[in-house]
Amino acid sequence: MKLKSILLAATASVLATTGANAAVATFDLTGDGRNIGPSFTFVYGSRSLTATAINAEAPPTPQLHQNSFGLGVNLGVGDANQLDSIDDDEAIVFDAGHIATYSDITLSRASMTDQYLIYGTNDASILSIAAGGLSAITSISTLVASGVGVGGSVTVDLDAAFRYLIATLPSGSDSRFRVSSVSTAVPLPGALPFMATALVGAAAARRRKKAAI
User: Fold this and answer.
1) Per residue in 138-166, is it b (16+ CB within 10 Å) or e — as a string?
2) Alpha-carbon Rg for the chain in angstroms
């Protein structure tokens, strides 16, 4: 009976740990109004999310610009500092460091005419795109969500499992927005349910063996 108790306790521990790992982490991307580099890593507990600014046209090198409304892209003097495609096709790529379920993304400063495109991919080359325009992004990505703003802030439900999430806009549009938060959840590792089943099965086998003696 002691072995059964130990195995069942271990199973409960595995399932409890799995539940904690699957909890949603919401990364707050707002800040104090400055460039924070071509890429920046945000931390939530033991998890991290790296944002990278993309200019899919050509130089200048893009910078992430962060203010109280969230992240945008800065291409230099006179730029709007938001995520836009008025001149060059801009994007922000989010890297969870592994395949994760992106639960939702919140966009700010998105008016009712500002279009957004959200893509997902597992192709690491998305991080180094510097030419080819929007098609360079879409050719290696899957469209997850699209739409227009609501005059302020809009949270877009995703439920998409990828390593990289890309926020961008239709090529050549005058749309613009910022990204104020991204939420992720770690998917249930496939081995854990089997581990739990094996532990319970071992306890049952032990019980039958003792009964047969």
Assistant:
1) bebbeebbeeebeeebbebebebebbbbb
2) 22
Rounded to an integer, what is the distance from CA 190 to the centroid of its chain?
A: 20
Q: Whole-angstrom Cα distance, residue 158 to residue 92?
A: 16
Give me the residues paired with residue 39 across strands: 52
* Global confidence as pTM: 0.79
Instruction: Write the pLDDT tens digit of every residue in 136-145.
Output: 999 999 999 9
Q: How many CA atoms lie within 13 A of 85 on its CB side?
A: 22
Judge whether 67 and 30 are in contact, CB under 8 Å.
yes
User: Rounded CA gap, 152 and 106, in Å?
Assistant: 10
Query: pLDDT (tens digit, 9 = 90+) per residue, 176-209?
Result: 999 999 999 965 554 344 434 444 454 455 555 5
Instruction: Tell me the two tokens of residue 67.
Output: 């203010």
